[in-house]
């Protein structure tokens, strides 16, 4: 007998299958159309490998920064009762709905040489646009909200009792955060970090606008694909597939290690399997 | 966004070799290294390694994506060394310059985009880099469908791809169709020149309007089709906030004979 947790009305199975097709079919089409014979040639190009490595490296850094800055922000937003928290909560998701190119323009207007902070930054010798730092800033802007939204929702869903009890037992704020809050949010933080990493890997519009498309310096995998579409569509497909493969390998490798709650096939609270 | 009828009136001053005139126009101190001289002398001088290393270095040029093959080839033919190319759609380039991106030289695929920057005082006087042409591009699967004139785009049995009027190619296509008195209902609308070629390659459309540089006569793997008599202006201008003197030198080099021959081979007539 199938365990009750795996029994659904038939419509759930049908919709689940459709949902899977939405994701799987385009990937299959891409793989079928891939000119595998030119894989070696395209990936033999140092600038292609450089762009892929830059994508992976920056996305990992962005995911880490998203966690460092996003988790505290999520906690404050989830628990603060001040009116500004409500406002900020709405603002924080803006990068998710803003067209990325517009996000890039907004960032340029912030740190560009005509920007809000551009002058003061230039005064101390920091120029961000069209550098690798711009790639990080652009991707952080679009990717961090995934951590904030995921962690905030999870924190709201958690009952407050364990922390209240810990407080009555004399645990200070730091101890409660370390021993109770963060461990309980581990799964959500893991999901948020993976989502933000994935978003950063695929980022195009904000990066192009703020960081330019400079080969060897700010050109990421997706920017290379954009440019290759112009001159060499085969190379564009190959680089896309390479991005896909690298992403899958990293997700599988990271499973159960750095992101303990993501992608593992069995979950202890689910019986069976 | 669309519109700007006066956009086509942008003065496309041809720099030629009259660097002094250009300096005067820019209100800048004439800057005349020995190698920015008559074209013959320049060509000879640039052929020497010494000249290569003395070229403007570390400049960042924002240029229209449709030039992504040609410009680096032109620069290397002209012996220009250390230049970073950042290719994007012309409308993205405009947004970047408006928002203060650290570009030194900007090259757009149309006058309307450049005019926006000129009118805001963000760039110097534009210089015409070259003049390309529009073309009717025919997808491989439609090569035997008897498409011989722009009027064919109205045929009910052909799927057409056009660029949106917000991007340079779309503006040109719109103007060309209007000039030909042809009203076309595109099946697919895209937002870049690459969009047109992709839709044709994937068989989503049988025919479309693109740049003549994508015709098979100008590049390997190019399309069947024919040119439409409608000019495509590639304009370059020095960004006011950038390294102006060096950018002007770079621009002068991109206009030399060696670079021009690369441009011409790519289907764009140096003006």
Tell me briefly what this model is:
The complex is a heterodimer of chains A (273) and B (271). Chain A is built from 14 helices and no strands.
Percent of residues in beta strands of chain A: under 5%
CATH architecture of chain A: Orthogonal Bundle
Kindly provide the name of the CATH class of chain A.
Mainly Alpha
| Helicity range of chain A | over 70%
- List unreliable stretches of 5+ residues of chain A: 263-273
Q: Spatial order of the strands in the main sheet of chain B? A: 2-1-3-8-4-7-5-6
Report low-confidence residues of chain B grouped into runs of 5 or more: 1-56
Number of strands of chain A: 0
Order of helix and strand elements from N to C terminus of chain A: HHHHHHHHHHHHHH
H/I helix tally of chain A: 14
Listing every helix as H and every strand as E from the N terminus to the C terminus, the arrangement of chain B reads HHHEHEHEHEEHEHEEHH
Which helices and strands appear, and what pairs or packs with what?
The complex is a heterodimer of chains A (273) and B (271).
Chain A: H1 10-33, H2 39-44, H3 46-79, H4 83-92, H5 94-97, H6 100-111, H7 118-123, H8 132-157, H9 161-168, H10 173-184, H11 186-202, H12 205-211, H13 221-231, H14 233-254
Helix pairs in contact in A: 3-8, 3-11, 3-13, 6-8, 6-12, 8-11, 8-12, 9-10, 13-14
Chain B: H1 19-26, H2 39-46, H3 49-54, E1 59-64, H4 70-77, E2 83-88, H5 90-98, E3 105-108, H6 111-119, E4 127-138, E5 160-163, H7 168-179, E6 188-190, H8 193-201, E7 207-211, E8 224-238, H9 244-254, H10 257-265
What report would you give on this structure?
The complex is a heterodimer of chains A (273) and B (271). Chain A has a single domain, classed as MetI-like (MetI-like fold, Orthogonal Bundle). Chain A is an all-alpha fold and 273 residues long. In chain A, helix 3 packs parallel to helix 8, helix 3 crosses helix 13 and helix 13 runs antiparallel to helix 14. By secondary structure, chain B is of the alpha/beta class. Chain B contains ten helices and eight strands. In chain B, helix 7 links the parallel strand 5 and strand 6. In chain B, helix 4 packs antiparallel against helix 10 and helix 5 packs parallel to helix 6. The N terminus of chain B is likely disordered. The chains are: A mainly alpha (273), B alpha/beta (271).
């Amino acid at each position: 007998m199938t365990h009750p947790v795996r029994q659904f009305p038939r419509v759930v199975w049908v919709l689940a299958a459709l949902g899977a097709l939405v994701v799987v079919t385009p990937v299959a089409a891409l793989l079928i159309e891939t000119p595998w014979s030119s894989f070696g040639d395209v990936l033999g190009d140092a600038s292609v490998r450089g762009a892929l490595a830059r994508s992976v490296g920056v996305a990992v850094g962005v995911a880490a920064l998203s966690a460092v800055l996003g988790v505290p922000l999520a906690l404050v937003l989830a628990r603060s009762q001040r009116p500004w928290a409500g406002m900020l909560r709405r603002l924080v998701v803006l990068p998710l709905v803003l067209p990325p190119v517009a996000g890039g323009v907004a960032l340029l207007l912030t740190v560009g040489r005509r920007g809000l902070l551009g002058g003061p930054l230039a005064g101390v010798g920091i120029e961000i646009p069209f550098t690798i730092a711009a790639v990080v800033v652009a991707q952080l802007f679009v990717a961090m909200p995934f951590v904030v939204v995921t962690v905030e929702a999870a924190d709201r869903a958690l009952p407050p009792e364990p922390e209240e009890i810990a407080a009555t037992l004399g645990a200070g704020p730091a101890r409660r955060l370390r021993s109770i809050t963060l461990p309980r949010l581990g799964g959500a933080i893991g999901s948020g970090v993976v989502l933000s990493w994935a978003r950063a890997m695929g980022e195009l519009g904000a990066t192009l606008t703020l960081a330019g498309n400079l080969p060897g310096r700010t050109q990421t995998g997706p920017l290379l694909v954009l440019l290759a579409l112009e001159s060499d569509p085969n190379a564009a497909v190959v680089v896309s597939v390479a991005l896909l493969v690298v992403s899958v390998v990293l997700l599988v490798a990271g499973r159960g290690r750095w992101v303990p709650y993501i992608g593992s096939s069995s979950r202890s609270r689910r019986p069976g399997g | 966004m669309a519109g700007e009828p006066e956009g086509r009136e942008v003065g496309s001053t041809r720099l030629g070799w009259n660097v002094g005139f250009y300096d005067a126009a820019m209100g800048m101190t004439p800057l005349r290294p020995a190698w920015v001289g008559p074209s013959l002398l320049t060509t000879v001088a640039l052929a020497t390694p010494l000249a290569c290393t003395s070229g403007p270095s570390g400049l960042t040029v924002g240029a229209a994506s449709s030039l992504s093959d040609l410009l680096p080839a032109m620069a290397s033919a002209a012996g220009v060394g250390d230049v970073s190319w950042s290719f994007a759609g012309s409308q993205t380039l405009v947004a970047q310059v408006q928002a203060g991106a650290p570009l030194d030289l900007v090259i757009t695929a149309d006058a309307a985009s450049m005019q926006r920057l000129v009118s805001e005082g963000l760039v110097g006087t534009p210089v015409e880099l070259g003049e390309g042409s529009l073309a009717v591009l025919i997808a491989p699967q439609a090569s035997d469908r008897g498409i011989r004139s722009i009027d064919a785009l109205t045929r009910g049995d052909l799927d057409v791809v056009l660029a949106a009027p917000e991007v340079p190619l779309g503006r040109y296509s719109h103007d060309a169709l209007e000039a030909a008195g042809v009203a076309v209902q595109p099946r697919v609308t895209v937002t870049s020149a690459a969009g047109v070629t992709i839709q044709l390659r994937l068989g989503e459309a049988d025919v479309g309007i693109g740049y003549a540089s994508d015709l098979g006569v100008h590049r390997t793997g190019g399309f069947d089709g024919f040119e439409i008599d409608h000019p495509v202006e590639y304009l370059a201008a020095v960004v006011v906030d950038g390294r102006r003197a060096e950018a002007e030198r770079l621009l002068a080099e991109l206009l030399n004979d060696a670079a021009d021959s690369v441009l011409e081979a790519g289907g764009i007539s140096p003006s």
